[in-house]
Amino acid sequence: MTLIRKTPKRGFHNTRFQETIAVINPRDLNRFEKGATVNRAALVEKGILKGAFDKIKVLAQGVLQAEGLIVEAHYFSQVAIKKIQEKGGKIVECKE
pTM for this structure? Predict the structure, then answer.
């Protein structure tokens, strides 16, 4: 084997300015009561978010059983929007 293949590969990783995105699923939203507002503070209070995240994204894995939730996040998948709105909930996109 040649020497170039044995040496470790190193490169430039610009992770200093990279945003961290927390992923939330509808099955996580079942912990909230009917008509509750789900935002960053509420997710931290319930223990769903742990650590520091820049943005929140709601995906569509799992079944949503809680009704009438007001969900505040930065990104939503199309299926997640459909699941939340079918249960009478509202979507609020954060711009911060």
Answer: 0.79
